[in-house]
Every structure is written in structure tokens, then in C-alpha cells.
Amino acid sequence: MATNLLQIKNLVKHYPSVKAVNGIDITLEQGICFGLLGPNGAGKTTTIEILEGINQATSGEILYKNKPLGNQFRNEAGIMFQSTALQDYITVRETLVMFSNFYPQHADLDDLILRCNLTEYLDQDNRQLSGGQRQRLLLAIALVNNPDILFLDEPTTGLDPQARRNFWNLIDDIKAEGKTIILTTHYMDEAYTLCDEIAIMDHGKIIAQGSPKSLLKETFDDVILQLPKYALNDFDLSSYTIHEKNNHFEITTCDVNAVISELIKNNISLSQLQIRPRTLDDLFLELTGKELRT
Amino acid sequence: MMAFKRFLALFFTRNKEFLRDRSSLSWNILMPVLIVAGFSFAFSGDIGKQFKVGVINGDTATIEAKQFIQLKHIGFYNVSPVKAEIARSIKKVQRHQVDLLLDANKQQYWINTESPSGYLVEKILLSSAANQKTFEKQTVSGKQIRYIDWVIPGILSMNMMFSALFGVGFVIVRYRKNGMLKRLKATPITAFEYLSAQIASRIILIMIVTAFVFYGTHYFVNFVMNGSHFNLFLVFALGALSMISLGLIIAARISSEETAGGLLNLFSWPMMFFSGVWFSLEGATPVMQNIAEIFPLTHVTAAARAVMIDGAELIDISYHLMVLVIQSAVFLLFGSWFFKWD
After folding, report:
1. What is the dihedral angle through the alpha carbons of B202, B208, B209, B215, rounded to the nearest 10 degrees?
2. Residue B90 lies in a domain
3. Which of A63, A145, A189, B31 could form a disulfide with A103 if both were Cys (CB 3.0 to 4.6 A apart)?
4. Are residues B123 and B245 in the same domain?
5. What is the ipTM of this complex?
6. Of A79, A84, A90, the CB nearest to B16
7. What predicted TM-score, i.e. pTM, was given to this entire model?
8. pLDDT tens-digit profile of B64-82?
């Protein structure tokens, strides 16, 4: 039977002018990858900082292994912030050694270096690392104490697609070891690929929670057909649910066959027709009702 | 044991960071050497020197003495009629730091037989035939203390102050601003472990740099060092501790480098000018002298000068050492109390 690693009960954080977190409850089972999603200003960074022990809640309760956050949590949690500066003039190896000395137990450094693909850069100054190398070092630092729970705050922001994919592989390996991961990201494909469960936050509350597939299934029973605008010039769209996207129209329908038959009947070229299922991007926009806020 | 391991990890990393930052390290060593070289050159000819006369019992001066101490273009300053103060001033006459010491009530004066300036001031004092009969002459002798000998303890202390305030205060603010402190907060490191590692690292580095500057400058300028090296070491170590602790208070909560820079300058500049580094506070107003008492730099400079020039023992400088210990304890307490990781 899966055990609860982290329990968050009625978590509230009020700042003088804003209610950043407004009563959220989350229970995390050991070994899952949990994604916390939401537009900017939704309260997810505040929530995650409270869970990491960096920020203090106004009220509510957080239990790690059925105990309030304390020394045990600090020793067993690995944290990768979105942006962390590293000490100048210190090498990758020295940085890892320093962080490993902070903990009573630590992972095998040689293994960690291999796993995070840092071997080539070990004697390189932190200042000289590229974005991808730096993110891998930050992940290695988060793993240096062989944590039971790992917080990853927008770990692939700013990485190129190849570096992102490599990073996903690393996270998959960590998941395979049974570690619990809490991930925040703005990339819905990342959340869909990595997370077993997601929660979407807005205005300090959780507005949807579940596995990505089940949430999509619960929310949508339709698909999207996409065609260039010029291809639909002489076609009457008034009876369809449509969205304009760049130079395309998106037709949302539960009956693909009927729409395609109608298009063929009206001699519409289907050479550039694309049919796609609903994605987490659609779900995100549907639930938060807006574009990604900045 | 675990706490000590964490302390050592932070301590060694900070040392490496400082030692590998070549520009900062060379500036720490070069700046005092350049100042000393500059002063050595600038004051080699004693250009524009004003006569300096210490006056005991100036308020109960005789008519003859009053006529003398009302003369213009001579720097008169009051000396308390306490035995220890008189002895200290006589020592200054021996060192050529004071040209003449006059007891204006008893009509007694001290001059250094080897001092040309003392000879000239004596001529002015005895310019009237009456004075020649009524003023009793006391002679002392001793090697001249050059301005460069006098100013070096202050320059070493001042360099230490900049290194302590900016080296710890500024670094902590930078780490807070760029999120490094927030990352450390997420580890089992405590604020006490972090701050003590920063302090220990900086004290050791300051002492190494100061020793390097001390012996390097001594080789070229051959300044006076009449006291014990151990005593001087103790003065500088305590001075470094008190000024690093002051830096901790300034850096305890600020996360803007601009604000930190402004505040550090606000503390360091008055100390640099009003702690007796460049000129003696003896002629300053009592208010100024009282304000100077608050500055750690005043006590480091005074104690270092007493050791280097007068060969003072620990008992002689115990007041300054005690003030530095108290200031360190108070600053450390407040600094740790106010400290914020992010």
C-alpha cells in the first residue's frame, strides 16, 4: 500500500495586499511525480516555497512522514530552485563536495557526476557553465543528499529542446528509483510527460487535480481539426465552434467524420488538415480562462 | 561534529573564492602599499610643518606663559595635568611628535635636545629676557618618529576595516540578492554556522594580507616597530573581529548592493577620517573625540600605534582591547539576531 509522504492541510499564506495561497489541501504518496501548474501569480511559487521550508505559512499544517517539517525534512529533501547563483571561482567538483558536507548522509559523488553527465566539467569554474550544464549541476546539488523528496522549480526554463529532453530522461531515471518529485513548470508537455498527478492553481486555490489523462478525459470529449484560413475561404463556419490561431482556424468537434464529410462536400482541400486531441495546454487555458499571465 | 563539518565546508570554500579572485586579492594588498609609498614620498621633506606645543594647566597660566600660548601659527593643544598624561606627552617630545611641552602654571617646559623644531619653539618661548629667567628647562632625547611611522598603524587598520566591512558585508548582500543564501537556507546549515564560517575565513585572510603588507612595507620603508609582534597580532585580530561583526549588522537584512554600498561607505568614511588614522585627535574638539570613541577603528589604530611606536604592553592597551571585545560581542549578537537568509 502506498504511504503518504507529504500532507498539506488548509494551507494559507496572506501578504498585506494579497492572499497568495488561500486554503489548499494536497496529499502526496511516496514515489509519484506531482506537477503544480498555474499562471504567473497563481500562488504556486509561494506554495512550493512553504513546502520547501523557505517561506512561512500564515496558517495550515504540513506533515512530512507524519511529522511537522523539521531537521529530518531538511536532511531528506532535495531542492532545485529555478534560479540559484553558485559561488564564483569554485569548480563543479568543489561545489558538489561543499554541498555534500552539509548533510549527514550523501549520495556517491562519482555516481552522481556520471548520472548528471558532469564528468567533462568537473574542474570548470561555475561561471563558465552553459545553461544546460548549470541546470544539471543544480540537479546534482539537489540530489547530493540522496533525497526522499525532490522539489524541481521550473527546471528546464531557458533550455534548448535537446537539453530539455536530456533533462526529462534524468528525471525519469530519478522517478524510477521511487523518489517523490514535486515539479512546477510552464511547459504543459513537460508536465504531461513527467507527472503522474497534477494540480492546477489559480488565485491561490487548486482548481483541478488528478492525473493528466484523467483530467483531459473528464474535461474534454472532443478533438480539434486545424486548417489554413485560406482553405476555408468559401466555407460557412457559423455552425461550428472555431478558434483563430495564427493563420489557421481550429474547429472543435466531437464528430470528426461529420465535419470531414461536410468539408469534402464543399470541395475544401484537406491536404493541410491536422487533427489533434486535446492537450494540457487546452486544459490549462480552459480552466484558468486566460493566456499564460506574465 | 556535523555542525563543525558544515562550518569547515563553508570556511574552505569561502577561502578559495577569495584567494582565486585575483583582482580583489591584489587590490587588498596593493592599496595600503601604494598609500604608504605615496605618504612616504609626500612627507619626505616635512613641507609646511606647523610647530606643535602641548600645554599643561593652560587655564591657570601665568601672565608670561599666557603671552606665549596666545601666539598665532603655533599648534597649541591642552594636556590634562594628570601624571600619566604628562608622562605620555613627555614621551611624545622624545619621539619628536610634539615640539615642546609647557606647564603654563609652573613655568616648566620639556624639549628634545635632538629636535630642530624644539630648538626653534624654545627660542620663541624665551624671546623675552624675563622668560629666560623664569622658565625652567627640562631636556629629553630620543629618535624622531617620522609621520610615516606614525601613520602606518592607521593605514594597516584602515585597510583591515575596508576588507572586513566590504569583504563580508558586501559579499553577504550579493549572495542574498543572487539567491545563494536562499539555496543555503534550504540545507541543514544554520545561520550561526554560516556566519561563523564567514567571520573565521575573513579574519584569517585579513591577518595573512595584513602580515604580508606589514612585512612588505617594513622592508621598503623601515618603519618603527618597538613593541611585541604578538601584541600587535592580537590588536589586529580583535580589530578585524569587531569590524567584520559591524559589517554583519549592515548586511543582516539588505538585499540591494547599492544600498549596502551606500551604508558601508556611510560607516567607513567617517571612521577613515575621524579615527585618528591621518591626524592626531588630540587637537580635536571634545565632541569629536567622544564620537571617535564609538568607532572600532579608533581603538585598533590607537592600540596598534601604542604597540608599534611606544612598545606598549597588553596592560597599557587593555582599555582599547576591552572596548574591541565588547563591540565585537554586541555587533555579533545584533548581526546574528537580525540576519535574514532571503
Report:
1. 160
2. yes
3. A145
4. no
5. 0.81
6. A90
7. 0.77
8. 888 888 888 888 888 988 8
